[in-house]
Design brief:
The structure holds two protein chains of two kinds.
Chain A (H helix, E strand, L loop, with lengths): L1 H20 L9 H11 L1 H18 L1 H4 L6 E4 L2 E3 L28 E2 L5 E3 L34 H37 L1 H16 L2 H11 L4 H11 L2 H14 L3 H8 L4 H9 L4 H25 L10 H8 L7 H29 L6
Antiparallel strand pairs in A: 1-2, 1-4, 3-4
Chain B lengths: L1 H28 L4 H11 L2 H4 L1 H14 L5 H14 L12 H36 L4 H15 L2 H12 L23 H39 L2 H8 L4 H13 L1 H5 L1 H18 L5 H10 L3 H29 L7
C-alpha cells in the first residue's frame, strides 16, 4: 500500500512540475483518476468489482439464462422468439416436447419436420415444478438440484438475484436520499437543525433495527416494496453522519465562504458546491449499504418475512432447506454461497474504494 | 465534568420522547387502526376482516391502545403505558408481557455476554498484533480472514453447522436444540454446567465470528494512530522496552474508543439473537420476539421494541459518561 502511495505522489509531483514548466502539457490527474489508479492496484477490490458487474448482468439477463421457453424456436416451418411472445402463443404448441434432458447446449430439441428449439442454459423457469423430481441432488439436468416441489434451484437462484439486487439498490437509493439531505442540512445550518437531526439519528440508533424491520414487515401486507422502504427508512443514519461530518469541515473552506459572499442561495451552495465534494464517503457507505441490504433481505426471507411466494429469493431457498437439513446439502450450500459471494463482492469494492479515497494517500 | 453530565442527561429527554413517538408509529400500522382496516379491506377485498381470529386481534388491539380515540389521546395513552411500564398481557397466553420478558431475558443476556466477551478476547490481541506489525504477512492474512468471516451471513453458517455438526447424515458433535438437555434442571451443577456450555457452543460461535473483523480493525486503526503520537515516541526514546511502550503507554489511550463501543454492540446483538435463537430453538428474548411477530402478539412486540430501545439508550449514556471519565479532554460541543 505504501509503495502505491509513494508512486502516486511521484506521479502527481511529476505532472505538476511538468505543467508548471511547459504550459499545455499533461494536466495533473484529477481526483477521480487518482482514486481509480489506487483502486485498480487492489486486486481483491477489482475482483469484487467484476463480481458485482457479473451479478448485475445475471440479474438483468435472468430470463435469457433460465426460462421454460426456448430462446429461438422453429415450429411448423415458422421461426419465433418464444421468450418475447406472450403466454397465449404457448397454447398452440407445447415446446416441452422439444426439451431434452441434458446440460447446455445438448438439451436443444429437434422434432419432426425441421422443428427446432434452442433453450436457455437452464431450461427451467423458477416457478415450474415437477413433483416427481422433488429434492433431487445436483444432476446433469438440474445442476444445483431441486427443492421440495421439484423446482430447479439454479433457476430460482438466477431469478433470486433480481430480488436481492433490486432490494439492495432501491433501499440504498432511498437511504442515500434521506441521509444526504438530512446530513447536509445538519452540517450546513448547524444550531437547532443539527440538534433535531442528531436526536433523530440517535433515536434510530437506539431502536434495534432488525427487530424493528421484522415488526413493521409483520404489520404490513407482504410485498417487496415494503421491504425496500423499511430497509431504506432505517438505514440512512450512517450516510447522514458521514455527510454531516463532511459538511462541517467544508463549511470552513474558502470556496464555500466565497460563494456565500457572492450571494449564492443556500440550496445552490449545498447541492452544487458542497455536495460534490462530500460524495466520496457517501459512495463508500452506499456500496457497504448494498451489501447490508442484501444481507437484511436474505435474513428476512430466511425468517419467512421476505417477498411473498412463489417469487424466488436466496433467503427463501435457504429457509426451505431447514426442513430437509439432514441431507439436502445443495439447498443449503448454493443459495448461501450466492449470498456470501455477493455480500463479499460489495464489501470488497467498498473497502477498495475507501482505501483508494483515503486522503492520507494523496498528501 | 458535571456540566457535561447535566447536558448529556438533558439530551436524553428528546430522545426518550422520540422513542415513544417511533414506537407509537408502529402501533399505527397495527390492524385495528380504523383507517388502515378500511384501506386493507379495500385493497384485499375484505380478506383481512373475514377470519374470526383477525377480527378478535383487531378488537383487542383497538381496546388495548385506544385506537378508536383521537390521535393525540392515543399518543398520551401510549406514553402513559411506557412510563408506567404497563405493556398489557400477551394475546397468546394472557400472561403479563413483562413476566414473559423477565423469564426470557437471562438466557439472551447469557449468550450475548459470553459472545461479546469472546469477541473482545479474540479481536483485541489480534488487533494489537496487526497494529504492531502493520502490513506484515500475518496482518494481511488476519485482516482478510476476518473480512471473509464478516461477510458470512450468520444464519447460513448456523444452518451449515447444524447440517454438518449437528447430526443428520454427517457428524453428530453438538446439540442443536435448546440450551440444556432434557431433565438437566435436576442435575447437580457440575453436570449441568458442561451440558449448558456444550449447548451454547454453536449459537455463541454464530454470534461471535461476525464481530471479530470490526473490532480488530478498529483496535488496529486506533492503536496505529496512538503509536504515531509524540508521547509514545518519547517513551520509546527514553529507552523503555517495546512491551512497556505498547502495553502500558499506547494501549491505554488506543483502546478507549473500543470500551465505549460496547453500547453500540447491544442493539446489533439483539438483532442477531432473533435469528440465531429461532434457528437453535433457544428460549430467549429473540425467540420471544420472533414468535410474537409470527402470531401478531402486538403487546409483546411493542414491549420488546420499547424496552430494548430504552436499554440501548442507557447503554449509550453509560458509554458516553465512561468515555468522559476516562478521557478528561472530552467536552460536549
Amino acid at each position: 500500500m505504501r509503495q502505491t502511495a509513494a508512486e502516486v505522489m511521484n506521479v502527481t509531483d511529476a505532472s505538476q512540475t511538468d505543467s508548471r514548466q511547459s504550459p499545455g502539457a499533461i494536466p495533473p490527474p484529477s481526483y477521480r483518476t487518482m482514486v481509480w489508479h489506487h483502486f485498480r492496484k487492489n486486486r481483491l477490490a477489482v475482483a469484487g468489482l467484476w463480481a458485482t458487474v457479473a451479478l448485475v448482468a445475471v440479474a438483468l439477463l435472468a430470463p435469457l439464462l433460465a426460462n421454460d421457453r426456448p430462446l429461438v424456436a422453429r415450429l411448423d416451418g415458422r421461426w419465433s422468439l418464444p421468450l418475447l411472445a406472450p403466454a397465449a402463443a404457448e397454447a398452440n404448441r407445447d415446446w416441452h416436447d422439444l426439451r431434452r434432458p441434458g446440460g447446455f447446449p445438448w438439451q436443444t430439441g429437434f422434432g419432426r419436420g425441421g422443428d427446432f428449439a434452442l433453450w436457455p442454459p437452464v431450461p427451467f423457469s423458477p416457478t415450474e415444478y415437477d413433483l416427481l423430481q422433488s429434492l433431487s441432488p445436483p444432476t446433469r439436468i438440474h445442476w444445483f438440484g431441486t427443492d421440495d416441489r421439484g423446482r430447479d434451484v439454479l433457476s430460482r437462484m438466477i431469478h433470486g438475484a433480481r430480488i436481492s439486487l433490486s432490494v439492495g439498490f432501491v433501499a440504498v437509493g432511498l437511504a442515500l436520499m434521506i441521509g444526504i439531505c438530512s446530513g447536509a442540512l445538519a452540517g450546513y445550518f448547524g444550531g437547532w437543525v443539527d440538534q433535531v437531526i442528531s436526536r433523530v439519528i440517535e433515536i434510530i440508533l437506539t431502536i434495534p433495527t432488525f427487530f424493528l424491520i421484522i415488526a413493521i414487515i409483520a404489520f404490513l401486507p407482504p410485498s417487496i416494496y415494503n421491504i425496500m422502504a423499511v430497509i431504506g427508512l432505517t438505514g440512512w443514519t450512517g450516510v447522514a453522519r458521514f455527510v454531516r461530518a463532511e459538511f462541517l469541515k467544508l463549511k470552513q473552506v474558502d470556496f464555500v465562504m466565497a460563494s456565500r459572499a457572492l450571494g449564492a442561495s443556500h440550496g445552490r451552495i449545498i447541492f452544487l458546491h458542497m455536495l460534490p465534494n462530500a460524495m466520496a464517503p457517501v459512495l463508500v457507505s452506499a456500496v457497504f449499504g448494498i451489501a447490508g441490504a442484501i444481507l437484511t433481505e436474505s435474513s428476512l426471507s430466511f425468517l419467512g418475512f421476505g417477498v411473498p411466494p412463489p417469487t424466488p429469493s436466496w433467503g427463501d431457498i435457504l429457509s426451505q432447506s431447514r426442513d430437509y437439513i439432514e441431507f439436502a446439502w445443495w439447498l443449503t450450500s448454493f443459495p448461501g454461497l450466492a449470498i456470501f459471494l455477493s455480500i463479499t463482492a460489495y464489501n470488497l469494492v467498498g473497502e477498495g474504494l475507501r482505501d483508494a479515497m483515503d486522503p492520507k494517500l494523496f498528501q | 465534568m458535571s456540566a457535561y453530565l447535566i447536558k448529556r442527561l438533558l439530551q436524553i429527554i428528546p430522545t426518550l420522547v422520540g422513542i415513544t413517538f417511533v414506537t407509537f408509529l408502529i402501533i399505527q400500522l397495527a390492524p385495528g387502526n380504523p383507517a388502515l382496516v378500511k384501506l386493507q379491506m379495500a385493497g384485499e377485498g375484505g380478506e383481512m376482516a373475514d377470519s374470526a381470529y383477525t377480527r378478535q386481534i383487531i378488537d383487542q388491539t383497538r381496546k388495548l391502545y385506544g385506537l378508536d380515540k383521537p390521535l393525540p389521546i392515543q399518543y398520551l395513552l401510549w406514553v402513559k403505558r411506557v412510563m408506567t411500564f404497563d405493556f398489557g398481557t400477551s394475546y397468546k397466553d394472557h400472561r403479563p408481557v413483562l413476566d414473559k420478558i423477565a423469564e426470557r431475558l437471562p438466557i439472551t443476556l447469557q449468550i450475548n455476554i459470553i459472545s461479546i466477551f469472546l469477541v473482545y478476547l479474540i479481536a483485541i490481541p489480534f488487533g494489537i498484533y496487526s497494529a504492531t506489525h502493520p502490513e506484515s504477512f500475518w496482518d494481511r492474512l488476519l485482516t482478510l480472514g476476518f473480512f471473509f468471516l464478516y461477510s458470512l451471513p450468520s444464519f447460513w453458517v448456523a444452518v451449515l453447522l447444524i447440517m454438518f455438526l449437528g447430526g443428520g447424515d454427517f457428524w453428530d458433535v453438538f446439540p442443536v436444540y435448546g440450551v440444556s438437555s432434557i431433565g438437566a434442571e435436576t442435575w447437580p451443577w457440575w453436570a449441568w454446567l458442561p451440558d449448558r456450555l456444550w449447548h451454547l457452543v454453536l449459537p455463541v460461535a454464530c454470534l461471535t465470528y461476525g464481530g471479530l473483523a470490526y473490532l480488530s480493525r478498529l483496535a488496529r486503526a486506533e492503536l496505529l494512530e496512538v503509536i504515531r503520537e509524540d508521547y509514545v515516541r518519547t517513551a520509546r526514546s527514553k529507552g523503555l522496552s517495546e512491551r512497556v511502550v505498547i502495553f502500558k503507554h499506547a494501549l491505554r489511550n488506543g483502546l478507549l474508543p473500543i470500551v465505549t463501543l460496547l453500547a453500540f454492540l447491544l442493539p446489533a446483538m439483539f438483532g442477531g439473537s432473533v435469528i440465531i435463537e429461532s434457528i437453535f430453538s433457544i428460549p430467549g428474548m429473540g425467540q420471544l420476539g420472533f414468535e410474537a411477530v409470527l402470531s401478531r402478539d402486538y403487546p409483546v412486540i411493542m414491549a420488546i421494541t420499547t424496552i430494548s430501545a430504552l436499554l440501548t439508550l442507557i447503554g449509550l449514556l453509560l458509554s458516553d459518561i465512561l468515555y468522559a471519565l476516562l478521557d478528561p479532554r472530552i467536552k460536549l460541543e
